[in-house]
Specification:
CATH class: Alpha Beta
Strand content: under 5%
Oligomer: single chain
Distance between the termini: 51 Å
Order of helices and strands: HHH
Shape: globular
Largest sheet: none
Number of strands: 0
Structural class: mainly alpha
Low-confidence stretches: 1-13
């Protein structure tokens, strides 16, 4: 069918997860960068040399993640569901 492009996950380009240590999807990258950006906004020190007048917190966070400077622990699906249930029980 014309106009439909199939994207293969085996094709490597400049932004593949292989270049982002520990990052398995772009959604995980966005979530981690958001959390790190908020930390920077609240006063955390950048782990790279960055002029805050020239680079925004989001750019700094993404560069730190790309270099593997931000440690994080993947959360299992069961753990997320458990946290969601706990939150719902507290709200009730």
């Amino acid at each position: 069918m014309a106009g439909i492009v199939e994207v293969s996950s085996n094709v490597r380009n400049g932004n593949t997860p292989a270049e982002w240590p520990g990052i398995v999807s772009r959604f995980q990258l966005v979530i981690l960068a958001t959390h790190r950006s908020k930390q920077l906004l609240l006063g955390a020190q950048p782990r790279i040399a960055a002029d805050r007048l020239k680079r925004r917190n989001t750019s700094i966070a993404l560069e730190e993640l790309r270099r593997g400077l931000i440690p994080f622990k993947p959360v299992a699906v069961e753990e997320i569901q458990s946290m969601a249930l706990d939150t719902m029980n507290v709200a009730l």
